[in-house]
Input
Amino acid sequence: MTSESLNPMDMAPEEREAFLAYASRAEGTNINPQTLLATDYLNHFNEIVMLLEMVPDMPDCLEEAQAWQPKSYQDHFRDSQFRDKELAIEAYDHVPRDHRKAFDDTVEQMNLLVALSLDRIGQALANGDAAALRLICSDASRGLQKMMDIASAIIHGSGRRLDQAEIDGFMAG
Output
């Protein structure tokens, strides 16, 4: 996907009209008017990254990390104090299709990486393998941060997507 795929003229007339209305409302907010997405959503993933980084030194943090749950974009904003949360919730249904798919696919991969990593961390802790624990936590944190960079690029209008080799690399850990 390239930025040209976000050309409103390529949209069906009713889709274009809604997109342009929300893009206009997004001007001057923390919602990107080109994509109708906000980076504030990534704060949800910053929480789990922070917890994963703490587990090797404070294994009791695993319980809190395990309590972390995936949260949809719209649910995140429903539960947030984000100034423009209502606009973020409404605009999400009007994110250009290609952009939304790339974003949703990246978020899905982040959620899968968290679940897989938490399982691996639990096994390493149960086995008393401190070296494996540190490596798993580090790999998970780095992988999530890279995926968050990709999600952020999508939010800011980039066509960057994860390819299957990248996904496999994150999950191999």
User: Anything to note?
Assistant: The chain has eight helices and no strands.
